[in-house]
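Field: sequence (string)
Field: structure_tokens (string)

Example rows 1 and 2, in order.
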Amino acid sequence: MLGVVINHLIMQGGVLHASTNSGKTAIIWLVEIVAYLSVDCYILISGYVNYSDTYKGYKFNRIVDLWFQVVFWGIILYLPSFLG
């Protein structure tokens, strides 16, 4: 999940476009590549772990838990941008 945040910060946050030094740009691209790889591995692992031959049914608690996690991390990660 950290790789997703890093990808958004580098591309959507403008970190890559703001870097003018070629050495810093190369480091940023290296971090971006590693973040892409981590996101790909996260997707593969989550698909493998969540796969089942039988239908487990709809669980409302899992949706609510996921929603709370998204809200919590959204607030924690973007709070510094509002404060500073």
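Row 2 begins here:
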Amino acid sequence: MASNTYEREHLVVTAVGPDRVGLVEQISNFLLKEGCNIEDSKMAVFCGEFTIILLVTGKEDALGRVAASIPSLTAQTGLTFTCKHPAARASAESALPCRLVAMCMDHPGVVHQLSSALSRLGVNIESLETKTEEAAMSGTPIFRLEARLSVPSRVNLHNLRQELDGIGQRENIDIEFSLLQRA
């Protein structure tokens, strides 16, 4: 008996180019017409440049049509697209979901300091977002980082917190680290 269900395949699609109204509508309409779904996405505008990262799911032939139609989509939108089938994920060890928030007066090296410490301890950064805004009263640039981490169960959380606190003290960064509820 034939099944109506299918194994969903994945395609990672990225694009960058001049921002204008209607880009998200054009991209989402294109994917819908090909029978694909946007499962996950991140979009932002940086200095007038629109950027997007999409995790697209669908049947293998539909994703093939999407990949083959990238030049047409580039011509329609003015964005530069790339697409890639994600590599098979290795079985992950047991890990705790955590959140890291850091705030300070903006200065070079904040992301590097924090990511180096996390990397040394084997902590995976699953998502990271940074933003620099002017402080309300003084206009001083304030840097904010927020990350979702996957901390292997073998990592001592006390040692991780001490490492982060040490960076905070040396670099004058307010750091908050917390465990998240498992999904």
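free_text_note (row 2): The CA atoms of residues 23 and 77 lie 7 Å apart.
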